[in-house]
């Protein structure tokens, strides 16, 4: 097996170095084009698209500049209304889209879909035949149509088209295409040159149209937005905003025009050059290639000449002109319109045609298959991946242009993988879900799409887009500010105003009542302060409600303990903040700021209520505090003296506990894993500080309010382990039982063995991970405060990568943005991928991932693949072995012969894996594990990769193996019991004796019934078989689920047999119980050296008598105390089994 | 009432029915009072154990037939207790160290050595050496076999080893060189027939020679199996008829059905079914070698000349790897998959040739 083969799919880039080298610098300049798209299908019009991209980047920057200005202006004029308008953006968006729908029927989802589908289909086929020449006759018409019709369209919107049947359309198109084929065939080579020129002319004219349309749209759009009701109040103010925008557009357009003309010039130049450069135009394809080369050159030139000033966007045109055409062209003309569309596609498709030459044959078939459901499923099973990966340029849309839109992807998108499409949508703020629902804004339809989704979309009236329309949507949709960003800004403003309003007061101190003292200088300072405060308001603090202001808390806290830390220095001195970690810097200051703990039933609130009422519930002695909270009506934990907060790391358990204490004015002593928490130390430290006289003094004394305001926070209780903290949990439980103060414990894993005992005494509060949105909001506000620019979708990625761990998100953010304050989506995604926590995958997932082909596995490297094996290297090979037969390999292509060959190869590879496994286990050569990974997981995966028809099944080997071991033990026992008579090995007993012995045992019973029992018992005695052995013989010799012959016997016969067997005692030459072994061995010793055979025989008999006595005695006892005896026997047997297992 | 196979087991060298020359040689060997270590090997059902017991009886007399089962426990250096069953008379000890699995080395080191080291007290009345009979030596690990090497030499005076196994291929060369190898081949069909007829005569039955021959062939000259079959025939039908069908063991039937299933259809689904069948065989403790052998014999019947060689070669290849590996099912399945692939190809190619 050549391993190198498996590297190939992961790195298709290798074979085409020239392309890469020419475009690398540009790629760097503009960020991220899909590498796959770049390489797999070189595009001839890449240049223009890239130019356009650059343009968009430019314009975006400008826009951003403007946008930045705009809000500022708005802020200045009306501070408070701004957030409102922006928050309602998503709503207005919907309104806007609906408006757009009515105003622009050409863009309507259904009609467009059907027509577009047909067109693209046809366009592809046409282009495939002769990428350039075929479109020649239709081109002029198409462009003419475009030119002539667009003004009318712009002026008067056309009525909606009702969705026409796709199949109908296809039918006609097929005929049309075949005609065209003829035309294409007849068109001569010399046409090619003129075609190209025309092509460019038309593209230029199309650009013009597109531009105009674009501008019209923009203006319209803006108007629509601002006509919204929500904006009515702010209209006057906002009127200013669009104006400059418009002006900008206007100013740009001439610029664009000029640049376009210049580009046209260069193009023309290139055109005139090209014939010379390519003297032989043997085929249109060749010409195409040549042209591409020219463009490549040209692009370089352009780049040097006007960096970033390039304006022409030929990519923009396909949608707009064609849609307009579609709107007007009568049905008969459609074919031509489609052909004209093929112009726009012809160049990219030429790349695709190379990669998938089979396309023209299959695509009409596919459309037919859709009719029949079963056929559709079949085609789903065999459906290939995208055929023209990367053939289409991924547009650079405006930021957040898709926000508020919910997408559903179905079918195979031709130019990108599902995963890429998803990330593309997410990049622009859109959301991708799996199923069509009422909320779905768009359904993106690909090849071989699911019929049910389409139907659903129709019924819900969801807009249906195809791939190109999706790209267009991204291209054309205006960007908007993320609602998170806006919220963050708003919040920031609010906090600012607050801080301005109540300076110094709003910063609650972070109290850490740790035994470790604070720095002396600060301490004295703070001591002075606190004293001052305490003297000033002794009475008010008592009267003030528990949910007081922060300052109140502060006061009372200071009261509670004579020495406290100085207030946390965050807000006091700005210099200190820089040195703080963000996690500490943005630690929530009040309960309201906690992420994901806002609900009435949230853990924080429950904890708050519990702590609030703690003293009420536990005022008296422990007798009034029964622990019924678990099952009582109110689940407020009133019966518990301690609370147990459990949840994954980084969700804010400690913070919550601390904040709740602060909120209620409790001081807390925190014990975490950094302090020794053994039985003794717990007793000393905690009991002394909490439960002893000092508090009691307070309790009996005057200052009662302060006395009971202590909380013990036991952080990381699941870390109380090892020698250091021995008995810590028990002591803690004891402490809880007799505590006079509330105790809050925290742990990660609530179901841990050690915690379970503790959990019984605690009010159970389980923290869940906050939702992504919750974290996102908070993070956006922090990012804003830090002056970061993180696009919300990027943040999404970061949060998901950290598995919703707030702390981790903050750390990552602060790390990644340490150098650069701006973070792009792609950068964030890449970083997030690096920082992704290694998720533990279950063996089922691993197995599925090993075999399934598709998006998630297509990009895996060899290392990734072998890493799958290491998720559980003992189980993974078993799973692979169990399930490889269920996979339909894509490589077989439905050929049974190939399938079987693949199966055989896979099985061989798995065998190799087994050999390696044997070496590893027997010689402890664990360094061979990677080798095993290749053989046992990677190679089978590569060979069989395809579709997995069912959920992976659990490896049956484990069960079968234990069954084998069990049977092997039974056989061994039988063999040893029968050993005296049979004198043969275990295998011989199993293979030869048992089948016949069974029949010999059963035949008397079967034929003679109860009379045959004596015969059977005699035979058993002869072979020293006891009843258990008899049963195991029956068990072991039943095959393939057949009912064993013994169970078919009459129950009377069975009973008679049992009675007959039990009637007499049976002498066995072996000991049934271990106990007798000792005695036996001593008698053996005595009879070791007999004088003659006779004597030996006598002794033997004597001995047998002895055992017989023992047996009889046992029988008797068994009669009287049967259950107990049986139990003993069972346990003995179990022991034996255990040993047998050990041996095997 | 025992089964015939045990009832009519010959107990002395003189009574043996076949390989009489060898029996004579053994008697001569024993009669001179001393004999070297023996390595008795031969296929299952040839009568190795019977022959060994006859030798021992020749050596020690009837006392050797007073057998008892002993339950010994040996403590490994790692404080692990190993229980092992032994069959012993006053003169010899029969151990199957393979029962101890991976710790068979400990059994060899402790148990055998202890027995070998102990001197006979009354050397005047009996032989000065004991015999330790080790069965299934081919199942011993290499470690255990090496542990045996020195013991065999050092305690030669007090202890003789008789090793019993099916094949010497897994016995390491040093041990083979220390022993006198005695091969006990399978009896010929005629010998089996004569034994069967003799047993039936003793039972007072009349066995038709055709049936006897049939049984002999069906049993694969395994005398033990032949006798068991014969008795089963007796239970099934008496008086015997020459063409009565001989009851087969379940696993043989099952194995044959499995082979037929492979031949009748080659598809992934069938491979899955075959896998369950193979598992069934394995869980019934049918050794994988026997499974693969049974499959090949059945499969070869359905193959043409060219394919035959290929399949046989394949089977040998997979059988070898099966010994090297740890999970038999993998290799059995790989063999079946390979056969399916080859067979399918062969059939389709044949069909194509037929068509054109």
Q: Tally the structural domains of chain A.
A: 7
Rg of chain B, please?
24 Å
Structural class computed from helices and strand pairing of chain B: alpha/beta
Helix content of chain A: 55-70%
CATH level-3 fold name of the largest domain in chain B: Rossmann fold
Query: Largest sheet of chain B, described in full?
Result: 7 strands, mixed
The end-to-end span of chain A amounts to: 35 Å
User: Can you summarize the main beta sheet of chain A?
Assistant: 5 strands, parallel
| Strand order of the biggest β-sheet of chain B | 2-3-4-5-6-1-7
- Unreliable segments of 5+ consecutive residues of chain B: none
Average pLDDT confidence of chain A is 62
The SSE order of chain B reads HHEHEEEHEHEHEHHHHHHHH
Would you tell me the structural class of the helices and strands of chain A?
Answer: mainly alpha
Secondary structure: number of strands of chain A: 11
Can you tell me the residue ranges of chain A where pLDDT is under 50 for at least 5 consecutive residues? 6-199, 225-232, 238-284, 305-364, 501-577, 621-633, 692-696, 702-706, 1074-1144
Order of strands in the sheet with most strands of chain A: 6-7-8-5-9
Spatial shape of chain B: globular
């Amino acid at each position: 097996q050549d391993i190198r083969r498996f590297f190939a799919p992961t790195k298709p880039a290798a074979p085409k170095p020239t392309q890469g080298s020419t475009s690398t610098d540009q790629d760097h300049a503009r960020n991220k084009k899909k590498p796959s798209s770049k390489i797999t299908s070189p595009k001839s019009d890449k240049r223009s698209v890239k130019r356009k991209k650059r343009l968009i980047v430019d314009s975006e920057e400008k826009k951003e500049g403007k946008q930045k200005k705009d809000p500022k202006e708005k802020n200045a004029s009306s501070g408070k209304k701004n957030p409102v308008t922006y928050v309602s953006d998503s709503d207005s968006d919907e309104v806007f889209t609906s408006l757009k729908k009515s105003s622009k029927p050409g863009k309507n989802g259904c009609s467009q879909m059907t027509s577009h589908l047909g067109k693209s289909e046809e366009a592809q086929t046409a282009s495939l035949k002769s990428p350039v020449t075929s479109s020649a006759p239709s081109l002029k018409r198409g462009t003419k149509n475009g030119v002539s019709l667009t003004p009318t369209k712009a002026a008067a919107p056309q009525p909606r088209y009702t969705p026409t049947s796709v199949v109908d359309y296809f039918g006609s198109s097929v005929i049309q295409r075949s005609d065209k084929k003829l035309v294409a065939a007849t068109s001569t080579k010399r046409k090619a040159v003129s075609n190209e020129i025309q092509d460019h002319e038309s593209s230029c004219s199309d650009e013009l149209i597109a531009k105009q349309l674009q501008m019209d749209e923009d203006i319209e759009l803006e108007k629509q937005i601002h006509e919204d009701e929500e904006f009515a109040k702010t209209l006057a103010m906002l009127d200013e905003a669009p104006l400059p925008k418009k002006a900008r557009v206007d100013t740009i357009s001439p610029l664009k025009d000029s640049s376009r003309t210049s580009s046209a010039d260069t193009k023309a130049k290139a055109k005139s050059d090209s014939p010379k450069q390519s003297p032989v135009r043997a085929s249109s394809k060749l010409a195409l290639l040549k042209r591409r080369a020219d463009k490549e050159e040209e692009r370089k030139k352009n780049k040097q000449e006007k960096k970033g000033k390039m304006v022409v966007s030929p990519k923009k045109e396909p949608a707009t002109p064609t849609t307009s055409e579609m709107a007007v062209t009568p049905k008969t003309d459609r074919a031509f319109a489609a052909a004209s569309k093929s112009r726009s596609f012809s160049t990219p498709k030429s790349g695709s045609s190379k990669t998938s030459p089979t396309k023209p044959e299959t695509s009409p078939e596919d459309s037919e298959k859709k009719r029949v459901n079963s056929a559709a499923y079949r085609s789903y099973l065999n459906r290939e991946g995208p055929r023209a990966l990367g053939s289409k340029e991924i547009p650079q849309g405006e930021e957040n242009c898709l926000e508020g839109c919910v997408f559903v992807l179905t079918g195979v998108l031709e130019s990108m993988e599902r995963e890429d499409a998803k990330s593309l949508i997410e990049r622009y703020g859109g959301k991708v879900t799996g199923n069509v629902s009422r909320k779905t804004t768009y359904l993106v339809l690909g090849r071989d799409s699911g019929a049910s989704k389409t139907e659903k979309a129709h019924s819900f009236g969801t807009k249906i887009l195809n791939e190109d329309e999706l790209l267009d949507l991204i291209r054309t949709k205006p960007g908007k500010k993320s609602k998170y960003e806006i919220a963050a800004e708003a919040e920031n403003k609010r906090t600012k105003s607050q801080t301005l309003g109540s300076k110094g007061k709003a910063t609650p101190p972070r109290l850490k009542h740790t035994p470790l003292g604070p720095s002396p200088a600060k301490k004295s300072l703070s001591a002075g302060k606190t004293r001052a405060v305490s003297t000033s308001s002794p009475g008010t603090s008592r009267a003030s409600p528990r949910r007081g202001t922060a300052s109140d808390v502060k006061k009372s806290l200071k009261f509670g303990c004579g020495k406290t830390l100085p207030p946390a220095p965050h807000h006091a001195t700005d210099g200190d903040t820089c040195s703080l970690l963000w996690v500490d810097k943005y630690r929530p200051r009040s309960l309201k700021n906690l992420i994901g703990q806002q609900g009435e039933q949230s853990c924080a609130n429950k904890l708050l209520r519990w702590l609030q009422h703690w003293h009420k519930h536990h005022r008296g002695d422990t007798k009034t505090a029964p622990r019924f909270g678990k099952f009582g009506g109110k689940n407020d934990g009133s019966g518990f003296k301690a609370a147990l907060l459990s949840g994954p790391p980084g969700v804010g358990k400690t913070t919550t506990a601390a904040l709740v204490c602060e909120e209620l004015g409790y001081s807390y002593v925190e014990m975490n894993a950094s302090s020794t928490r053994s039985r003794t130390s717990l007793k000393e430290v905690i009991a002394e500080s909490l439960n002893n006289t000092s508090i009691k003094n307070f309790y009996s004394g005057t200052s009662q309010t302060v006395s009971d305001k202590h909380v013990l926070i036991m952080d990381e209780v699941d870390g109380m382990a090892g020698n250091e903290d021995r008995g810590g949990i028990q002591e803690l439980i004891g402490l809880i039982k007799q505590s006079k103060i509330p105790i809050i414990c925290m742990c990660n894993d609530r179901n841990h063995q050690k915690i379970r005992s503790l959990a019984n005494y605690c009010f159970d509060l389980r923290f869940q991970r906050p939702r992504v949105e919750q974290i996102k909001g908070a993070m956006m506000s922090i990012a804003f405060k830090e002056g970061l620019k993180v696009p919300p979708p990027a943040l999404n990625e970061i949060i998901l990568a950290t598995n919703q761990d707030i702390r981790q998100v903050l750390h990552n953010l602060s790390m990644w943005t340490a150098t650069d304050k701006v973070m792009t989506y792609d950068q964030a995604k890449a970083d997030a991928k690096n920082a992704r926590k290694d998720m533990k995958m279950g063996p089922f997932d691993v197995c599925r991932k090993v075999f399934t082909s598709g998006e998630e596995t297509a990009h895996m490297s060899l290392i990734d693949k072998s890493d799958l094996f290491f998720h559980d290297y003992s189980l993974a090979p078993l799973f692979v072995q169990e399930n490889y037969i269920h996979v339909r390999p894509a490589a077989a292509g439905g050929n049974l012969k190939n399938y079987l060959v693949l199966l055989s190869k896979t099985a061989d590879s798995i065998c190799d894996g087994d050999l390696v496994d044997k070496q590893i286990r027997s010689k402890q050569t664990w360094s061979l594990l990677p080798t095993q990974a290749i053989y046992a997981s990677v190679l089978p995966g590569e060979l069989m990769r395809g579709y997995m028809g069912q959920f992976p099944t659990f490896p049956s080997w484990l069960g079968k193996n234990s069954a084998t071991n069990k049977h092997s033990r039974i056989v061994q026992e039988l063999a040893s019991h029968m050993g005296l008579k049979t004198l043969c090995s275990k295998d011989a007993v199993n293979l030869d004796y048992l089948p016949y012995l069974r029949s010999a045992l059963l035949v008397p019973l079967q034929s003679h019934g109860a009379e045959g029992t004596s015969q059977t018992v005699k035979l058993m005695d002869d072979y020293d078989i006891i009843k258990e052995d008899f049963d195991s013989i029956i068990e072991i010799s039943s095959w393939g689920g057949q009912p064993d012959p013994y169970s078919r016997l009459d129950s009377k016969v069975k009973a008679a047999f049992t009675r007959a067997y039990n009637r007499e005692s049976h002498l066995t030459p072996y000991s049934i119980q271990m106990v007798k072994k000792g005695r036996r061995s001593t008698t053996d010793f005595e009879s070791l050296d007999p004088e003659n055979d006779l004597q030996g025989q006598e002794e033997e008999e004597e001995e047998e008598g002895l055992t017989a006595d023992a047996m009889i005695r046992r029988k008797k006892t068994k009669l009287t105390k049967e259950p107990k005896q049986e139990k003993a026997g069972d346990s003995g047997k179990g022991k034996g089994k255990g040993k047998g297992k050990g041996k095997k | 009432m025992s089964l015939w196979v045990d009832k009519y087991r010959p107990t002395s060298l003189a009574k043996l029915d076949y390989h009489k020359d060898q029996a004579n040689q053994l008697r001569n060997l024993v009669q001179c009072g001393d004999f070297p270590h023996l390595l008795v090997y031969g296929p299952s059902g040839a009568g190795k154990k019977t022959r060994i017991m006859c030798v021992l009886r020749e050596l020690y007399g009837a006392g050797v037939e007073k057998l008892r089962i002993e339950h010994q426990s040996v403590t490994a250096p790692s404080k692990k207790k190993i229980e092992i069953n032994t069959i012993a008379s006053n003169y010899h000890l029969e151990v199957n160290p393979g029962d101890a699995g991976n710790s068979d080395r400990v059994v060899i080191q402790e148990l055998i050595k202890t027995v070998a080291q102990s001197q006979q007290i009354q050397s005047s009345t009996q032989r000065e050496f004991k015999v330790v009979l080790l069965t299934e030596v081919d199942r011993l690990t290499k470690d255990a076999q090496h542990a045996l090497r020195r013991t065999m030499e050092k305690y030669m005076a007090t202890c003789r080893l008789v090793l019993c196994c099916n094949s010497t291929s897994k016995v390491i060369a040093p041990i083979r060189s220390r022993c006198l190898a005695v091969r006990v081949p399978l009896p010929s069909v005629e010998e089996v027939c004569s034994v069967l007829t003799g047993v039936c005569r003793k039972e007072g039955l009349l066995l038709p020679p055709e049936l006897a021959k049939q049984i002999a062939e069906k049993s694969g000259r395994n005398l033990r199996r032949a006798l068991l079959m014969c008795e089963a025939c007796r239970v099934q039908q008496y008086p015997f008829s020459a063409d009565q069908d001989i009851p087969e063991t379940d696993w043989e039937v099952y194995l044959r059905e499995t082979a037929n299933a492979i031949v009748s259809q080659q598809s992934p689904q069938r491979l899955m079914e075959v896998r369950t069948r193979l598992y069934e065989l394995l869980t019934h403790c049918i050794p994988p070698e026997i499974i693969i052998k049974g499959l090949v014999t059945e499969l070869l019947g359905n193959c043409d000349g060219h394919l035959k060689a290929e399949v046989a070669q394949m089977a040998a290849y997979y059988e070898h790897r099966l010994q090297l590996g740890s999970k038999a099912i993998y290799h059995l399945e790989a063999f079946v998959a390979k056969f399916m692939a080859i067979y399918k190809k062969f059939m389709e190619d044949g069909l194509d040739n037929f068509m054109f």
